[in-house]
Amino acid sequence: MQRLAFFRRRFLAALFAGALTGAAAQAQPAASADAAPIRIAMIEGLSGPMANTGEAVYRNLVWATERVNARGGVKLPGGSRPLEIVRFDSKGQTEEALSGLRAAIDRGIGVVVQGNSSAAAAGLIDAITKHNERDPSRRVVFLNYSAVDPLLTNERCSYWHFRFDAHADMRLSALMSVLREDKALKSIYLIGQDYSFGQAVLREGRRQLAAQRPDVKIVGDELHPMARVKDFAPYAAKIKASGAQAVLTGNWGNDLTLLVKAAREAGFDGTFYTFYGNALGAPAAMGDAGIGKVVAVADWFPNVPTKASETFYQAFRQRFPNPADDYVHMRMQLMIEALAQAIERAGSVEAGAIAAQLEKAEVTLAGQTARMRAADHQVQQTLAVAVMDRQGAPGVRFDVEGSGYGFRIIRQLTPEQAEMPHQCAMQRP
After folding, report:
1. Which tens digits make up the pLDDT trace of 108-123?
2. At what angle do helices 51-70 and 2-26 cross, to 10 degrees?
3. Which CATH fold topology does 2-166+306-381 show?
């Protein structure tokens, strides 16, 4: 049944392959139905309070592999092979993520992807590095699409870990390029999830504010338990009472949705500077109160003003027409393209051979390019800052999740502008 579903998905993807890859891609033969798939272990929270983010990841990865498979799969000396995503539920817990890793290794899977939780990513990096030293015949390579604690490609960098998202300091610097120009801003409230990523955002936020806007007073600075707060009304009340004109947060998933909803209900009318304000219920939660007030940063938005970007997004919406299934991640698409490129160049599915080629990866899709920096395995790509507005307003052709609200691009940074130095001392095998 799973194999039938796999080929049905591949057939659907083929219908839209031309929109993304052109007539030449359409002419490619499909991967052989008899070829063993190259399995990719997705270790992600697929149950619990953050399950919606895990399912969004799964849709992105499935669509990305469908595109590769529709053009003939990954070409190897012994013939083309399709890609296949195998799900492992971490339940949002690091120990469960490590359990998923062990299960993936036991099943002979050599490529692991994960992203939602920097704490889980750190655990996976350590476990994979140690495993590869102990058992070089079953080495594993780790592709990270969303865990953005800067430490992961700095002090804790690993040869076996590749990050395809801009890390938190890079994202914050992009946000700050807009915030520092808001001369009316005099007070700000910092709030985040109490784990490594949330702590890193607030720490770097304090540093960048002091350096670039020392005139802005920090009137609140707190962390809250991750994925355990059901009622953010007390936090919203404190934000309102502080007199803050803006909030800076790295919150994601329900922790962001519930926070912005509570702030709206409390009557807070300031600006939200966010990492993920464009996603997973946040625009609908804010409603009209978010117009011109919710700012987000990402590698890409649906309203990037190019024809290639528009075609790419329309193809995704055709594949997943339910508005609840919105939220496509360009970086995840580029990640799968980089993996396919690395396997083909290596001529092998062995993790060490793949890693050696991933260090040199450079891929382009729908006008977006990602280049892997070999020194620290941190991808270099464009970053965009956008502000929430009503669908149909200038620059807002597409909305988010059928909410009627989308994001208008207000700043784009080239890879060179977004790049930051690193402190990685890479230990190569």
Report:
1. 999 999 999 999 999 9
2. 50
3. Rossmann fold (3.40.50)
